[in-house]
Design goal:
The protein is an alpha/beta fold. The protein has a single domain, classed as TIM Barrel, CATH 3.20.20. It is 42% helix and 16% strand. It has 11 helices and 10 strands. The strands form 2 sheets. The protein has an 8-stranded parallel barrel with strand order 3-4-5-6-7-8-9-10, surrounded by 5 helices. The chain is globular and about 45 Å long. The two termini are 36 Å apart. Bound molecules: magnesium ion (MG). Magnesium ion binds next to loops.
Amino acid sequence: MIKTLLTAVAALSVFTASAAAAETPVERHGQLRVENGRVVDQHGQPVTLRGMSLFWSQWKPQFYNAEAIDWLVDDWKVTVVRAAIAVPEGGYLEHPERETARAEAVIEAAIAQGIYVIVDWHAHDPEPEAARRFFAHIAEKYGDRPNVIYETYNEPLPRHDWAGVVKPYHLAVIPSIRAHDPDNLIVAGTPSWSQDVEVAAADPLPFSNVAYTLHFYAGTHRQELRDKALLAMQRGAALFVTEWGTTEASGDGPVDEAETRLWWAFMEEHGISHANWSLNDKDETSAALRPGAPAHGHWTRDQLTESGRLVRDRLREMNDAR
Ligand code: MG
């Protein structure tokens, strides 16, 4: 009898564990929104997403496939991925249909896996007319899915100031999303490669469910940038780190693990979601994969770089209870 009972309890706990594991991040958190300067989930609870950004879509398109996303979910335990849809340099401006198809491949893989997906307009200069076309299409096609997060302007150059260029750009582009999708989270780029978050926070956008983009590279950006982030949050802004690196801002140079750990602690303390730059095999230290790594997942530890191993281990540790 006791043995039978223990067996039943064991079976029940196995069932409970597998039921919990079967719940995807989107089933758990649902529609995201911004409330009182925080990104919260469908239950009003703060949510911290952790995952990977892909590389510029026109240069590393081979990783924009469902099998790569499936592996990131199954093995790296990501809860969010970012499609970095290139705008200049042979990207959307020249090949709109090709780059849109790459975005859609990642969006549909994310929907199938029940994770969140950042659709990133990967530009340094404002291209509002092209951005309006792109985002209107994405929002019309996918805006009813809670998975989709729109990132309207990756990294504005420092010469594009908030009041004169970047804010007017968002004022032009965001209505093209809201015309089709009234509610999904939008992450708005900020001046100086998405570092001047406190400037945007002082003069915020007049839309609901908007967070502001903060980017850091641990080998270059330290406490002075965390102080800017703190000021932005004090001013009421919700922040989202759509891109960060373990290395210098160039994407290269040594991996700074100590500073990376300070940033991880900071983002956990403040519930800031983040995506690491980047899932690709370029020969630079911020790349998570070694040159020549296969495009469709199933990467061995030997195929990961120092940065890739550090980030994968962290994602598995932190997202296990997703
Ligand atoms: Mg929606």
